[in-house]
Structure formats: structure tokens, C-alpha cells
Amino acid sequence: DTEVTQTPKHLVMGMTNKKSLKCEQHMGHRAMYWYKQKAKKPPELMFVYSYEKLSINESVPSRFSPECPNSSLLNLHLHALQPEDSALYLCASRGASGGTGELFFGEGSRLTVL
Amino acid sequence: AQRVTQPEKLLSVFKGAPVELKCNYSYSGSPELFWYVQYSRQRLQLLLRHISRESIKGFTADLNKGETSFHLKKPFAQEEDSAMYYCALYFGNEKLTFGTGTRLTIIP
Predict the structure, then answer these.
(1) What is the pLDDT of residues A85-97, one digit of tens each?
(2) Cβ separation B95–A56 shorter than 8 A
(3) pLDDT tens for residues A1-35?
């Protein structure tokens, strides 16, 4: 299995809802990423987990809460989001420790906040 | 500051013509540079990395440290090359930073 799988593909939520995005990889990669991509913009780094520990938080608002339950899974918990948080959320994984920066991306979860 | 710049947001090229997508970077260390491609309705995927010096789908890219550039080139454009192309810089501390991207359109 050489893919990063994200669920759900589409999510619509209200500003008071609590929802989660899920990401899974079975390539044995030890670094996992969340990126946010707005329309016609490049992906922006949000969080990085390395060996199941949060290593990078790019000053993301606390209404986004990442979680890495094990080396294959990555979640992004969403609460009290704003309409401007509507975007494509990309999960990625990276295999080599201390080496190449090649990332493998999922197809993304398209989030709409009403 | 570390930065990746792609000066062209849009680039249109006739089929069969040469293609060059520009990428410049600003980084004080030894850079690790990539080109990623996003075809319509497909996931972001790696096209090239400077370390391997390989050619994928006819594309090549050479790292020029003097000019701090990593331009993507293809001698003869094909219609299936139409996509969004991102140059990306890896800092070695888990961060992969993308340029603003160039949308390439191949005109039949």
C-alpha cells in the first residue's frame, strides 16, 4: 500500500459543530503532515508529527486540534470553525528520517464551513 | 529568510514547443528542491527531486546554486502536461515549503 488515504472527501459543517478529519498511511512513514490549501493557492503547512509527537505547529488557531494516535493515523479535530476556514485539507507522510523531503499526499478533505 | 519564488502564475505554451517553469529560492543552507505537480482532480504528486537528477515525463530540472534557481524544463510540450506545478524547498527540519505555483496550459 503506497497511498495516503483521507476521509471524508467532503465535509460541510456549521460554526458550532465538532468534526474530525482522518488520515491513514501504511507505508511505515514516521512523519505526517497537515496542510491547508485555499483555492488557487499553494498548500500551507499547519502541523507536523514526527514519531507520533507534534514537532511543528505553524501558529494554527486552537480551533484546529491535531492528534496522532499511532504511527499510521493522523486526525484533525475541528471545533468552532469560521467560514474562512473552508479549504482543502491535505494530509501527507514522509518516509526517510533525516533524509529526503519527499512527501506523499492524500487526495484531501474538502471542508465547507457555513 | 527561506523562500521559494515562482514568478509566473500562468503560462501558456503551444503543443510541441519548449516549456520552462521558473523557480528561485532563498536559503542559507544546502537546499533540497522538488517539483510537485497537481493534475486536475488528482492528488499532489512528486515530479522531480534535484538529488536524483532524473527525467520524469520528459521533464528535467537543474539546480543552479549560483543563480539560486531550479527551473523545470521540457523540450516538447504535450497536452497532458497541463497542470499546476509547484516548486518546493525542504529545510531538513521536517518543513516542506511550496512556491506560489504556476498553472501551465498547453494549447493544442
Answers:
(1) 999 999 999 976 5
(2) yes
(3) 679 999 999 999 988 889 999 999 999 898 999 99
Query: What is the C-alpha to C-alpha distance for residues A64 and A79, in angstroms, rounded to an integer?
Result: 7
Quote the pLDDT of residue A99: 53
Q: State how far the Cα of B72 lies from the Cα of A112, in Å rounded to an integer.
A: 34
**Percentage of chain A lying above the pLDDT 70 cut:** 94
**C-alpha span between B103 and B108 (Å, rounded):** 16
Which residues of chain A are at the B interface, by a Cβ-Cβ cutoff of 8 Å? Answer: 31, 33, 41-43, 45, 48, 50, 55-56, 90, 94, 98, 100-108
For residue A86 the three cell numbers come to 473552508
State the residue for C-alpha cell 486536475.
B40
Q: Read off the pLDDT of residues A51-61 as tens digits, 9 standing for 90 and up.
A: 999 999 999 99
Q: pLDDT under 70 in chain B at which residues?
A: none
* Residue at B96: amino acid letter: L
Residue of B nearest to A92 (CA): B44
In one-letter notation, the amino acid at residue A103 is L
Identify the closest residue of chain B to A57 by CA–CA distance. Answer: B95
Which of B82, B69, B72 shows the shortest CA–CA distance to B25? B69
Grid cell, residue A97, equals 528520517
> What is the spatial distance between Cα A100 and Cα B90, in angstroms, rounded to a whole number?
8
